[in-house]
Write a structure and sequence with these properties.
- It contains 2 helices and 43 strands.
- The chain is globular and about 70 Å long.
Length: 681
Amino acid sequence: MIRLLTGTLALALPAAAMAQDDQVSDSLEPITIPTKIYYPDAIVVNGGLLPNNARNPLGATVLTDFEPGMGARVENRLRDEAGIVQFRRSDGRTAHPTSQGVTLRGLGGNASSRALVTLDGVPQADPFGGWVAWSAYDAINLGGIAIARGGGSGADGPGALAGTIGLYSEMTDGGEASLAYGSRDSWDASASVGGEVGSGHIAVDGRYSRGDGFVPVAKGQRGIVDRAAPYEQGGLGLRLRFDAGDDSRIEASVRGFSDRRDRGTDFTQSQVDGVDASLRFIHDPVGETQWLALGYIQLRDFESGFASVPAGRNSVAPALFQRVPATGLGARVELRPLIGDANPLRIGADWRRTTGRTEEDFFFSGVTPGRHRTAGGSSDTVGAFAEWTSGDVNDGFLWTLSGRVDRWWLGEGYRLERNIAGPVITDLRFAARQGWEGSGRAGVRWTSDAFSLRAAAYRGWRLPTLNELYRPFRVGAEVTTANAALKPERLWGGEVGADWDNGDTKLSATLFVNHLTNAIANVTLAPNLNQRQNLEAIDSKGVEVSAEQRIGPATLRATYAFTDAKVDASGAALALDGRRPAQIAKHGGSVSLRSNTGGPFDGFATLRYVGKQNEDDLGLLELGDALTLDAGLSWKLTKAISIEARGENLFDELVPAAISSSGIVERATPRTLWVGARMSF
């Protein structure tokens, strides 16, 4: 059960919904529908975001074709977009919760995210570890996802090193529900209901999913200890919106989620419980100065067991039990003054605080631990930002300039180890540190009819997570030590791109180059001994291409990314010099075909490819490439009821997600079939 209690409300910055007839868009011109305006880099909806009357010249992508239920998952939808890399190829039903970081443009890394993930403007990374609890979005009704590649977007906040993945919730009006049954006795149920109450609006969203799971270890390598890995997940969210005078409103939300997973052997159960709350005040009159105020709280309680399995996989023993309570707090204010007849200037300030610790039992004798470790600390970031965007949506030439300055603090960290039945072994205190960081982005866009050119240069940064600073860990025989002296990561980058959009045909190509200094990586010091260290740099360059074509009743879309990334290292990390960062493939892409008739029958098919990539920093362990197919069909029986069938990995392709030092391959989701029904009213 969820053991966390909310103590603070919070504000969420942009809540958004999107036009349902445009599944993916890189278009230049805005699409206007009642109460909603969409731009490639911003989404505006009455009740969610300060209006934006100008476009940033960014090559942003907006996804609006995500529907909850029927086994669909946010993290899997993101895999269709070239350039987005998640640390593991497994999804939130089987991957270990601490391995679910996300990055863009080949910047590598460990399980901590180098991309900033937000929900309605609120940062989503775990306060302690920087990973993302994708199952947490079961408790919301998503209206869309906006992907801005490249760092330095000052208004997004610190942490947008590789880019920003913005999730936007949708306030339900009426009701909708789905129920599906799938392979391995899996169930997936979701429901949303909402409507007006007086001068306001209320919405409740929820989801529950469970399954017996599959055996993670690849066939042919399994032993008697290997079994299926079940999962059970669910969440519930409540959102309120009500007027607070002319052109003003208050919005509040609270949601909780619970996630239970198993890794396929005894002693490997994990659980994540979380509660998030937000409160915001928005004043957005047309033709006047606009402003908002935001505050939020993020509570997490994570527990996990780790097992030791010998080479023959004929026995299993507990190796470590971990519990990580963590808290994230934040606030934000933003002002958009009226200048002339528009609001081109954004100025504001924000604050984020994270605290957390890990409590670990290890050195087991049978099922009894012999040693206990506590490690943790805190971090604070306070920043101010400004952003100016020239012109309006009809101008042929646009430019934007944004910047921010941040003051950061790392509180005194600690690590204490003791024998459970004996004395203290290690009692370390790490001095508090502080510093300044700057970030920003400058970009231009020139448009003539359907064709446009764009360019941008940016600088971003990321503070090490508490997990990277203070917590050592062990996977099998591999020991990785923490490093309390880690420096912030800093990125310099740039891009040039071109777009074509004549309505039925959309083409986009972007060339990028990134130079990431102080990149945090797990560096091999000796056999089975690693340490988190700052590398000199990771250099990444490449090309991202997308194409979309309407073909009668269907839309064909393809994306592809070529990424050439290499490590620049010396000293203790010299062996990594010139090598490709771990978990980064050179090639990746997808091709999808979706119907757009609006008739009684709909369907989709998505072919997804991920290239070979290294599991470890030295490139000694390689994960093979994989080609998978997902597809689905739906039949609308009545205006309110439809039945659906969909499949994941229909080829039943072996998708290697991890490989151990002894060569044991862990696989991602095998072929999974679903059948179910949807209802709306």
